[in-house]
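INFO batch 0412 | record 1 of 1 | parsing
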Amino acid sequence: MNTGSDRGNNESASSEPTAEDAPQHESKAPAFIKANRSLHLSWQVGVFVVGLAVIGAGVAMLVLPGPGWVAIFAGLAIWATEFAWASLVLRWTKRKVTEAAQKALDPKVRRRNIILTSVGLAIAVALIGFYLWKYGLTLPWNIKDQ
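INFO prediction complete | emitting tokens
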């Protein structure tokens, strides 16, 4: 009977990857930039600023037209080329998005989402119908006190 006690000290009993199992993060900067410390620091600052600009644009696109979440994930991917913490955040985000996509494909969840969407649309149609019945095609700011 294998109880798992014959494992080495570096192996854990769980199947979850640990920080020791994760590959070491290495900068994606060209070799001549990595050779000079001040140049490498400047490279990292530049990558951070570009990633921050892309993430800022993504946040703005959440309320404005545009692919906001795509831009936010792209900014994280830019940061992940230089920063280990961003690589971990990006890996965690990918895992959570994959889990959510799998959960959304579950027939019970899909049925619930379809029902909730249908109820929401029915309420919206009822409210619009009531407004049109009461005021006609008059815009709300043109309605005079009655």
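INFO post-check: Residues 97 and 103 are 10 Å apart (CA to CA).
INFO record closed
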